[in-house]
Amino acid sequence: MNFFINDALADAAAPAAAAAQQGPGGLAGLIFPIGLILILYFFMIRPQVKRQKEHKALVESLKKGDEVQTMGGLMGRITEVGENFVKVEVADGVEVTVRRGAVEAVMPKGTLKEL
Predict the structure, then answer these.
(1) Structural domain boundaries, residue 87
(2) Can you give the pTM of this predicted structure?
């Protein structure tokens, strides 16, 4: 009488057959997620940590007279180095105070003369 719902028939052999078709569980089921985590680590996390270490070393090595570029795009020569801030001369007589962490790159000597 029921046209839309099929009758459920009990079959004792069905659960045993389904378990045999799934194969071994446990370790084989964990290989794919572990592989994804390893790929994520080597392609995303590890390079980012390396860049952070390089930037930290760059910020710690700043000294007076270095020609630098800030994250905002300003280029200038460091005139004073403090614990958290540096003063950057961007033009004759114009100094800007920026955070040490905002220094993105140390440029080769003479770069400002070319500009």
Answers:
(1) 63-115
(2) 0.66
